[in-house]
Automatic annotation (TrEMBL):
InterPro entries reported in the protein's UniProt record: S-AdoMet-dep_MeTrfase_Alr7345, SAM-dependent_MTases_sf
Signal peptide stretch: 1-27
GO MF terms held by the record: methyltransferase activity
Protein name per Swiss-Prot or TrEMBL: Methyltransferase
GO biological process, one term: methylation
UniProtKB keywords: Methyltransferase, Signal, Transferase
Organism per entry: Bradyrhizobium elkanii
Transferase recorded as keyword: yes
Length: 253
């Protein structure tokens, strides 16, 4: 009789422990999204899938560490390719602010962004039309992450105070928040001199400017590195894949 009671108590203890483990596993799964599945969503456009081939979005999302529930600012969102991927990843409770200047928006991408904005996947996106050197509404604070993909080189030849822009981004992040930035590589020593002609920027120049605002480099991604790129051809005309650098910065705690 005593043995039966002991066996029953042991079974109850085992089941209770198992039940306690289940929520932990589910929470872990939620915190580590299936980025490949997000990219493979059947309602994404064929045009975006073509861009995927050179942008490697699943690797980019994983490198950045985008999680459900995050609040993210997507700088220079353009037509919204990255914005939509971020929005899908932070859903359902997260939010993405898609920033662009009025001038760039009107001249190049307004119709394309507005069309994309009608998609259900964009319901947690707020479009922010502000100058690049003052990109963040005053009420937006304690961001988890800022992304800045393949446009910093353009900022370099536009009438933008980059130092002011970088300080504004730093201030808008919460302590421990991240800035993930990627761009097209220029040759060593070229700095920003080929930003308009080749649409490239020297990695060390970008690093110097970002770090001057207080950001600390915590990771570098090599998944868009292409050694075969001679770096002397305009990005949009290159016959080989473009060499691109990906950097992850953090605002100190």
């Amino acid at each position: 009789m005593n043995r039966s009671i002991l066996r029953a108590a042991a079974c109850i203890a085992f089941v209770s422990a198992a039940l306690l483990v289940v929520p932990q596993v589910r929470a872990e799964d939620a915190a580590n999204p299936d980025y490949a599945a997000i990219v493979a969503a059947p309602d994404r456009s064929d045009a975006d899938r073509q861009v995927d081939q050179r942008r490697q979005p699943a690797k980019m999302l994983a490198f950045a560490g985008v999680k459900p529930g995050m609040t993210i600012l997507d700088m220079a969102a353009s037509a919204g390719y990255s914005t939509e991927l971020l929005a899908r990843t932070v859903a359902p409770s997260g939010k993405v602010y898609a920033q662009d200047s009025a001038t760039v928006l009107e001249r190049f991408v307004k119709d394309r962004f507005d069309t994309r904005a009608k998609a259900p996947a964009m319901k947690n996106v707020v479009h922010v039309v502000r100058d690049y050197d003052d990109p963040i509404p005053p009420e937006v604070k304690d961001l988890d992450m800022i992304t800045f993909f393949f446009f910093y080189h353009d900022i370099a030849y536009l009438p933008v105070d980059r130092a002011a822009m970088n300080k504004k981004m730093f201030a808008a992040l919460k302590p421990g928040g991240f800035l993930v930035i990627a761009d097209h590589s220029a040759k060593a020593g070229e700095g920003t001199s080929v930003a308009k002609t080749l649409h490239r920027i020297e990695e060390s120049t970008l690093k110097q400017e970002i770090e001057a605002a207080g950001f600390k480099l915590v990771a570098e991604g090599d998944f868009l590195h292409h050694a075969e790129d001679p770096k002397d051809i305009p990005v949009f005309k290159a016959p080989v894949p473009i060499d691109e650098f990906v950097l992850k910065y953090q605002k100190p705690q």
